[in-house]
């Protein structure tokens, strides 16, 4: 310890007539003072030939007795920072225990070695030439995959450069925690965007009782209990998104994120960063903070890759690698990151045909289609059309604060329609009608134009077709308005119950 560190400086009158053997230079080390030669109570110190303060002999004796350098290694080992000191050539002459613990290298591998041989890119090496201090926050040490806050100070003795000391904190845990916080808040952001959709899904629930559809839901329920990759096939608007949500919600991952990526709406150039993310500053135009990809957002949860048929061939290879290794390659980050994600993909395209054409990878197809669920189009789920009309009428009545019924004509028109846009089209059509209808009933003219054109086409059918149509309409009308009570309907229409059943079968009327 130096005197200059502990003395209170003040100019002392030179009239004191101090003996010269009581005066020492200010930069002297405590241990260099020979206490036995001192007679008086105080020892005086001078700087530039001026006495600038004194310290009691007792204090000097006490400090000499304590021999601070004996405690020094122990103190240094007890602080949580890692410390290393090198001489002016880079040779390591000191490292505390925490240095060895943080870096996972035993001290005997460090002391006496050159820092240049141990960590080629260590910042302390720079100080050997600049003689300037360095403070770095959140410094990434590549070889150890650790983050540290580091202070590096040059060491001088009598203005001569003698080496450098580096003091650093391991902040890997905090950094990782921070990353997790950022990831979670990105998930929350993603969820916020979907809140409206989720609200709607909750209210509308899954509707479907058609045997084909029920078989599909049962299969989905079995599959949901496993982690296997699922490929959902089906035309636009049949409910692929709904089904993948259903699988996630019934899986053990239900409380974890469900993240969606529509491969058709993301430009080819962005899809890799959307899926895998990138490190800050890894390419021109990259955000400073970097970006967390959907795979990382979905960690422990499910990722839904919609319109997978639109993914580019190059991207398909990267996706396959992730599916096979369970790791992602973040752009700008050399080490791969492990993720635990269940993958559900969907498409309305014929992937086998795409394989033949050479635009879809066969190996990816087999990896994705371990389980394939095909959703039947709405036109093949006659009975579900009725259920969906009723369900959406209910839903939109509530939403728009109305209490509308549907006229028989409008009902028949909806039932006979071919529904190329499937459930989405039906849903939109009911919403359209509910919004535009004043009064208490939705009539044919309240439906979108395409249904009215269909009604006009009726003029060109044969008499028999027209009669059949009318008969079906009357039957349906009676069944609906009598709550599907067949006995009552047969009575009202003046026909036997058997005849009624025959006609129901003939006109393929599905009973609820
Ligand atoms: N079984 C169902 N019961 C009630 N509503 C459904 C059902 N299936 C789908 N829907 C509704 O139909 C609409 C279309 O569904 P979804 O988006 O899941 O279809 P998709 O097949 O994924 O469409 P796309 O091919 O355009 O991606 C949504 O509004 C959804 O709520």
UniProtKB/TrEMBL annotation:
Residues 206-435 form the Sigma-54 factor interaction domain. The keyword Transcription applies. Keywords: ATP-binding, Nucleotide-binding, Transcription, Transcription regulation. Residues 68-113 form the PAS domain. This is Sigma 54-interacting transcriptional regulator. PROSITE patterns: PAS, SIGMA54_INTERACT_3, SIGMA54_INTERACT_4. PANTHER family: C4-DICARBOXYLATE TRANSPORT TRANSCRIPTIONAL REGULATORY PROTEIN DCTD, TRANSCRIPTIONAL REGULATORY PROTEIN. Pfam families: AAA_lid_14 (PF25601), HTH_8 (PF02954), PAS (PF00989), Sigma54_activat (PF00158). It comes from Fusobacterium simiae. It comes from the Bacteria.
